[in-house]
Design goal:
The complex is a heterodimer of chains A (391) and B (262). Chain A is an alpha/beta fold and 391 residues long. Chain A has 16 helices and 14 strands. Chain B is α/β, with parallel strands linked by helices and 262 residues long. Chain B has twelve helices and nine strands. Chain B starts with a helix and ends with a helix. Classes of the chains: A alpha/beta (391), B alpha/beta (262). At the A-B interface, α1, α8 and β11 of A face α3, α5 and β6 of B. The structure holds pyridoxal-5'-phosphate (PLP). Pyridoxal-5'-phosphate binds next to α5, α11 and α15 of chain A.
């Protein structure tokens, strides 16, 4: 078992990762790796980033003792409140860091993909802050189920470009962003929204999200959690939380989208029910058919509706550094209600998946201390949940 | 004919290498379509085998891939069709696809099947030189070359590695962006061609964004081969039936060939 500090020269975490990208992009990926490396070790960048994280994003986010819910569960539950970060999700940790990088690299234009719209909003926000032009690619299905976030992006001055190809969801938005980048790479930085894509993206996004786990470790003090749990879409909030814990004793559990159930074939559980392949520039676990054609994912949660996962998670799974499970759409909806009513916190559908797992496993977890990454707030999902409920 | 023989036979004149998605206009009609292009003056082909998430392709070739997959096309069937195209036309064929279907089939088995089909080269759009070693080795065992890409953004250090490994040619990306029809007015192809030529005698084939007789002729003056894809694929997607599709591509290939020969 070995935790990778930074991926090797080929961008690998164990057998996963790499750089399977069109040649047009390769020089930019090399340039980005160098620029991030220089920035990350530059005290000026670190100081600017720390200032933004504290004064703009509002970090550190609280580690909240959810006492009433703990009583209901019979489990001591601590919530890492990424929902309280500016714009309402952990995504801002990454976009502020990458926008600062784009600014340093002198790239005037930024593109991003978004599923739930949280990454799009966080990117549009960071671009507004730095005066960068911003275009966000979003699948047409997600545009309709996350309408609030579309309006927020527009208000922040971003362009939202609808993506009709494929299923009109996150995978298609990533592909559209990559295709745009192939044409515009000389003037444009791609702020990818999770620990996915070709090297160096999985490494950059993990480094920018590990603040979640680093803060949590600090806030825990002498408390040693038994379990650390987070939802896994592309895997950024979970990797950000897990990474600093990976050498410790806590059981790390990533929860994927079970959709209508794994047997239905309509889910987003690439680690639990997929197999290794190359998607969006990296070797990782993915949903694919017997011919190596990528399959469409399904989840009620737009942020988890993705047929791939970050390569470092694939390595964590393969080497037993973390384990992965899934919960269904219906379980996630129930968990969303549970937290709302017992704690007065409306969670996003994505972290509701992690919470649903704690609910389901509450007997096995009895009297244990569980840290859960509450990756975002649920405002964006209220309309969609109302529609689902009325059906 | 092999690519090497074709490059030699035509000498100064650049080869016209149409790209077409196999499975179009329908799986049984693909060979007829390629034969029509051969009769109209094609010197060889890039045979597209569909992938569900083609990152280097614009909307037209994406649509072609979706249609081809819906008709039941697979990597294996695409290679079988390539063998039939070889048989019918005796022209060199490069098979073009993406990494993941190849990994699923197994790199060695893909190489074996491609060699068996008589493919002279493999073009793998999301496989940069950095990741290409295991693929190149397996293909070489079966007598199939692995094409390497050079883009306008490719640095000198990368270009050195690209020209050294490219077999049987370097695929020079003539325009920034994914596949699609453009006016061919970019000056980047000329710079790129000069940078490749100054390093190596390896044949250079230009593709991406070349769509009409004028831009093909201009690219032909810079390179040893020219790939035209989207403009041809669009004509097939727009055609009502197989005969119309064959006529439409033959007519454009004829115009391209004429422009490149004059
Ligand atoms: C609140 C929230 N949590 C989680 C995710 C899933 O992404 P990741 O797995 O990268 O954290 C998203 C994605 O949009 C999100 O908005």
């Amino acid at each position: 078992m070995s935790v990778v500090d930074r991926p090797d020269a080929s961008g690998r975490f164990g057998d996963f990762g790499g750089r399977f990208a069109p040649e047009t992009l390769m020089p930019a990926l090399e340039e980005l790796e160098g620029a991030f490396e220089a920035a990350w070790t530059d005290p000026v960048y670190q100081e600017e980033l720390a200032g933004l994280l504290s004064d703009f994003v509002g970090r550190p986010t609280p580690l909240y003792e959810a006492s009433r819910l703990s009583d209901v569960l019979g489990v001591r539950l601590l919530l890492k409140r990424e929902d309280l970060a500016h714009t309402g999700a952990h995504k801002i940790n990454n976009t502020v860091g990458q926008a600062l990088l784009a600014h340093r690299m002198g790239k005037p234009r930024v593109i991003a993909e978004t599923g739930a719209g949280q990454h799009g909003v966080a990117t549009a926000t960071a671009c507004a802050l730095f005066g960068l032009e911003c275009e966000v690619f979003m699948g047409t299905v997600d545009i309709s189920r996350q309408a609030l976030n579309v309006e927020r992006m527009l208000m922040l001055g971003a362009t939202v470009t609808p993506v009709t190809s494929g299923a009109g969801t996150l995978k298609d938005a990533v592909s559209a962003a990559l295709r745009d980048w192939v044409a515009t790479v000389e003037t444009t930085h791609y702020i990818i929204g999770s620990v996915v894509g070709p090297h160096p993206f999985p490494w950059i996004v993990r480094q920018l999200q590990r603040v979640i786990g680093d803060e949590t470790l600090d806030q825990l003090g002498d408390t040693k959690p038994d379990v650390v749990v987070a939802c896994v879409g592309g895997g950024s909030n979970s990797m950000g939380m897990f990474y600093p814990f990976a050498t410790g004793t806590a059981d790390l559990v990533g929860i994927e989208a079970g959709g209508y159930g794994l047997d239905s074939g309509r889910h987003g559980a690439s680690l639990v029910a997929g197999s290794p392949g190359v998607l969006h520039g990296a070797r990782t676990y993915m949903l694919q058919d017997g011919e190596g054609q990528v399959l469409e994912a399904h989840s009620i949660s737009a942020g988890l509706d993705y047929p791939g996962v970050g390569p470092e998670h694939a390595q964590f799974k393969e080497e037993g550094l973390a384990r992965y499970d899934s919960v269904t759409d219906a379980e996630a909806l129930d968990a969303m209600d549970l937290l709302s009513r017992t704690e007065g916190i409306i969670p996003a559908l994505e972290p509701s998946h992690a919470l649903a797992w704690v609910w389901r496993e509450r007997e096995a977890l009895a009297d244990k201390t569980v840290v859960l990454c509450l990756s975002g707030r649920g405002d964006k999902d209220v309309d969609q949940v109302a529609v689902v409920r009325s059906q | 004919m092999t690519f090497r023989e074709s490059f030699e036979v035509t000498g100064e004149r650049a080869l016209l290498l149409p790209y077409m998605m196999c499975g179009l206009p329908d799986p049984a009609g693909t060979v007829e379509l390629f034969s029509a292009m051969a009769d109209a003056g094609a010197d060889g082909f890039e045979v597209g085998i569909p992938y569900a998430d083609p990152l280097m392709d614009g909307p037209v070739i994406q649509e072609a891939g979706t249609r081809s997959l819906a008709s039941g096309m697979t990597l294996r069937r695409g290679l079988e069709i390539t063998a039939l195209i070889r048989e019918a036309t005796n022209l060199p064929c490069a098979v073009m696809t993406y990494v993941n279907p190849i990994l699923t089939m197994g790199v060695a088995e893909f190489a074996h099947a491609a060699g068996g089909a008589g493919a002279g080269a493999a073009i793998i759009a999301d496989l940069p030189v950095d990741e290409s070693e295991p693929f190149a080795a397996a293909l070489e065992n079966e007598g199939v070359g692995l094409v390497q890409f050079a883009a306008p953004t490719t640095t000198d250090a990368r270009l050195d590695r690209v020209v050294e490994r490219a077999d049987p040619f370097v695929y020079g990306i003539a325009e920034m962006g994914v596949t699609g029809e453009r006016d061919g007015s970019s000056s980047r192809a000329a710079d790129l061609a000069a940078r490749v030529r100054s390093r190596s005698a390896v044949p250079l084939v230009l593709g991406v964004g070349i769509s009409g007789p004028e831009s093909a002729a201009a690219a032909g003056r810079l390179a040893d081969g020219v790939i035209v894809g989207t403009a041809l694929v669009r004509r097939v997607l727009d055609a009502a039936d197989r005969a119309t599709a064959c006529e439409a591509v033959a007519s454009l290939v004829g115009d391209l060939a004429e422009a490149m020969r004059s």
